[in-house]
Design a protein that fits this description.
Layout (H helix, E strand, L loop, with lengths): L2 E6 L5 E5 L20 E4 L4 H27 L8
Antiparallel strand pairs: 1-2, 1-3
Bound molecules: zinc ion.
Length: 81
C-alpha cells in the first residue's frame, strides 16, 4: 500500500498515512485533528525514478564533456571517455 502525505492548509501540520490508491482522498474529507482546518494531499514524486531520468536526459552529455576535460588535464588518468 502506498504512503500518502497530507498537509493541513490552515496550520501546516503534515503527516503520512497508508492508503489504497482508491482511498487516498478519504482523509481529505476529515478536518485537521489539530485545528479542524482543511486537508490537502501532497503530490508524491517518485524521486528515485525522476532523478535517474533527469540524470540521463539532462546531464549525460555534460558529464562526458566534464570527463574529457578531466582526462585532458590529467594525461595519466585511466578515465575512459
Ligand atoms: Zn490544522
Amino acid at each position: 500500500m502506498p504512503t500518502y502525505q497530507y498537509e493541513c492548509k490552515d496550520c501546516g501540520s503534515s503527516w503520512e498515512e497508508f492508503h489504497k490508491v482508491a482511498e487516498r482522498e478519504a482523509p481529505l474529507k476529515v478536518p485537521c485533528r489539530l485545528c479542524f482546518g482543511e486537508i490537502k494531499l501532497i503530490p508524491q514524486i517518485p524521486s528515485m525514478i525522476s532523478m535517474r531520468d533527469g540524470w540521463q536526459r539532462h546531464t549525460s552529455d555534460g558529464w562526458k564533456d566534464r570527463l574529457k576535460e578531466i582526462k585532458k588535464n590529467n594525461p595519466g588518468s585511466t578515465i575512459d571517455v
